[in-house]
Each structure stands twice: as structure tokens, then as C-alpha cells.
Amino acid sequence: SFQKIDIKPDAKDELAQMSHTFNEMMELLEENYDKQQRFVSDASHELRTPLTVIESYASLLKRWGMKKPDLLEEAVDAIYDESQRMKGLTKQMLALATGEPDKTVILQQIDLVKSAEDTAKRLRQAYRREIVVTANEKPIYILGDPERIKQLLFIFVENGLKYSDDDIRITLDQKINNVVLSIQDKGIGIPKDDIPNVFERFFRVDKARSRQTGGSGLGLSIAKAIIDAHGAKVDVQSEEGKGTTFRISFPQVNKKQNEKQSGGEKV
Ligand code: ADP
């Protein structure tokens, strides 16, 4: 039969304490659940770009198959590179899920003009949109992690594509003391008050506006981690309705090294 529980005055406190603890536990669980949900949606978002590229090349291959040897090589290269990128992304997503983004980079001398041209080619293919690359010199060397630099370019150019309808311009400037990479779009722009927050994790300007584009507010926080890891600096110029320019300034590679590299000598 039903057993009555007698609550003595001091037991009441214990019960209150217990229910308090229980509520706290529930909150923690809920919070973690939210974080997990968010992680899953972020991960799928970030993995979508390389998947889009792989998908579009695979469908070209299906259509043209062996009939176009040039395409075959380009497609296989693209599919391989993008799978590598997905692998890197999953690693970074996991790092983000567990706390700090993975800031390790393996620096080597790379030609930023080539990285930009490769990225533009990939994204033109995937999105059927124009991406214009201009450089005041060719090649322009920086000390960079090739995979991370590609990821960085993808994030900025993809944002440009997402938040504008016009062409995207990538500009490379070899200056006396540094190398400046700019990514410019003529899109919706970022409200002045929001500019300082765009590199924060999960920050999105306008949830309703941004939801249509299916972002996560994670891209630019990954980009910032990559910029920091390269000892580079970023600034944002943006005007609502006019467009946005992100400028990333990389430290200069030792000029001598530069000459040796282009002269084909051993360093
Ligand atoms: P998301 O996945 O939402 O694009 P990001 O971290 O890449 O996340 O960007 C954060 C927010 O900054 C975006 O939601 C968007 O509101 C704004 N933003 C980023 N790039 C641009 C751009 N080129 N033009 C306009 N707004 C931008």
C-alpha cells in the first residue's frame, strides 16, 4: 500500500537542497545539449563547401567521363584536395567543440597568388559566380600553412558570395614591409555596431537575415584563429548596402629567401 513519507522540518531543507541540485544538473544537461546541437549544425555547415565542390566535379565526371582528359585531371585533383580539406575541417571542428580552436600551423614559403587563384577556380566551379584575382606582383611569397591559407580564403570568399550578388575581388599587394590580401564584395555590408563582433564565435549580424544563407557564425572565428597563428592582422571596412572588404596583412617573408626561392637556389 501507499507509503507516506514523513518530512521532518530539517528533512525539508535537504529536499530543497536536493531539488536545487537536481535543477542545476538539468540546466547543465540542457546547456550541453544546446552546445551539442549547435556543434552538429556548425559542423555540417562548414563541411558543406568542400562537399559542394566534390559534388559538382563528380557530376561533371559523370557527364563527361573519359571524354575530356583535361577535366579528368582537374576533377580528380579537386576531389582529392577537397577531401583533404574536409579531413582538416573535421579536426578543427572537434577542436572547437572541445574548447579552443586548433592553432598549430606548419609554416612554409607559399605563393599567395597561386593559393588565391586555386581558391577562385574552385569556387567559380562550385558556385558559378565570378571571382576576380589581381596581384601587383607574381609570385608573392608568405610564410604560411598551405591548407590553412586555403581554408582562410574559402571562408572569406564564401562569405562574399553569400552576402552579395556581384563579383568578388581578391587583391594581393606586395608592399615594402608586408603582404596584404583583400577580399572585397559589393553586398549587403555589416552594420557599424556589429563590425567589432564579427570574429566572435557564433556571432551573426541578424539572425533572420543570416538564417536564409544557412551560416553558423563560426567561419570568421576559424578565420581569426588562422590569422593569429600566422602572426597576421585583419581589418574590416564595411558599409551597409555598399559592401565589405576584409584586409589581412601578413608579415613580410625575408627578401633574400624570396630571391633564393625564385632563383631556384637551395636555401
Ligand atoms: P556565417 O556562417 O553566419 O556566415 P561567419 O562567422 O562567417 O558566420 O560570419 C559572421 C557574420 O558576419 C555573418 O553571419 C554575417 O552576418 C556577417 N558577415 C560576414 N561576412 C560578411 C560579408 N562579406 N558581408 C556581409 N556580412 C558578412
Automatic annotation (TrEMBL):
It is found in: Cell membrane. Keywords: ATP-binding, Cell membrane, Kinase, Membrane, Nucleotide-binding, Phosphoprotein, Transferase, Transmembrane, Transmembrane helix, Two-component regulatory system. Its main location: membrane. GO terms for cellular component: plasma membrane. It catalyses: ATP + protein L-histidine = ADP + protein N-phospho-L-histidine. It is an enzyme of class 2 (transferase). The keyword Cell wall biogenesis/degradation does not apply. Residues 42-254 form the Histidine kinase domain. GO terms for molecular function: ATP binding; phosphorelay sensor kinase activity. Residues 256-267 have a biased composition (Basic and acidic residues). Residues 248-267 are annotated as: Disordered. Residues 1-34 form the HAMP domain. Its EC number is 2.7.13.3. It is a multi-pass membrane protein. This is histidine kinase. The chain holds residues 192 to 458 of 460 of the full protein.
